[in-house]
Amino acid sequence: MVIEKEGQGSALDPAGATRPLHPNSAARRKAHGKVPNGFTLLEVLMAFVIAALALALLYRGGIEGLAGTRAALRRDEAVARATARLEAMCHGARLAPGLQEGDDGGGFRWRTRVQVTESVAIAPGGAEGQRLRLTLFSVGVTLSWPGALRPHEVSLATRCLAALPMEPG
Asked: Which run of H or of E encompasses 64?
């Protein structure tokens, strides 16, 4: 018959000696000559596996963060280039309806689309009293560049007003 002492975690056997309740307790191992000297090989291997998984997840997160930063920088550069091209078209050379495309450098390609939205003749003006035609153009610029998984593109559009001399006749 085994009698337990309350709160002590050991038991009395019929001979009156105390023995631990848990069969793998330190007292039992000491009684049989097995004293633990550290971690078992399985425990060490499991610790290495857990550490390797944590390191792999940390590495992957860092790589994805860098890729996201690079994509955002390329998109910002594309928007800046498209904005500059729109400004040059509306405030620079004479606009003509049509499509054009070309290489913008740095891996970027551009494509522009110019359409006449509305055109109105106005009273004589200009240096020589010529009749002028006010023309509203719809201007769009698309910049594209290759990506790791798929091509990317940014499109901007605006309207530009131009006063052009009317052709006689």
From this structure: helix 41-91
